[in-house]
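Retro notes (design track)

What went well: tokenization of the new backbones is finally stable.
What didn't: we kept losing track of which sequence belonged to which structure.
Fix going forward: every design gets posted as structure first, then sequence, in one message. First example under the new rule, 122 residues:
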């Protein structure tokens, strides 16, 4: 099993940057797809980015391409999300998730963190 724990959220001005971290317990971290999802009030949870177990493949939602970067350090059981040029519409609770399969569908992810709030002031 994998238990993700997110950190790094906070308040940032529009145009600013934040780095989210997700430290996951469990010996199978390096075999899992890791992903970041977000959910804003009144909206459905949506995928932001995903990275394959070895880091060779990544996926980004169109809304964050060119601004966000996902990477992982399997030696530290940690996945990161660097968020640059933040916009008001990026404000949401960001969740880290893990699963054995390569998928963008939140319903298929087996392991979830508690989430970290990202607030963007304009």
């Amino acid at each position: 099993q994998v238990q993700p724990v997110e950190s790094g959220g906070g308040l940032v001005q529009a145009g600013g940057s934040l780095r989210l971290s997700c430290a996951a317990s469990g010996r199978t971290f390096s075999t899992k797809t890791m992903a970041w999802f977000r959910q804003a009030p009144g909206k459905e949870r949506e995928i932001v980015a995903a990275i394959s177990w070895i880091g060779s493949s990544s996926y980004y939602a169109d809304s964050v391409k060119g601004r966000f970067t996902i990477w992982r350090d399997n030696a530290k059981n940690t996945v990161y999300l660097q968020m640059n040029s933040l916009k008001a519409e990026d404000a949401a609770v960001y969740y880290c998730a893990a699963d054995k399969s390569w998928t963008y569908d939140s319903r298929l992810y087996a392991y979830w963190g508690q989430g970290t709030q990202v607030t963007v002031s304009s």
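Added context from the reviewer: DSSP finds no helices and eleven strands in the chain.
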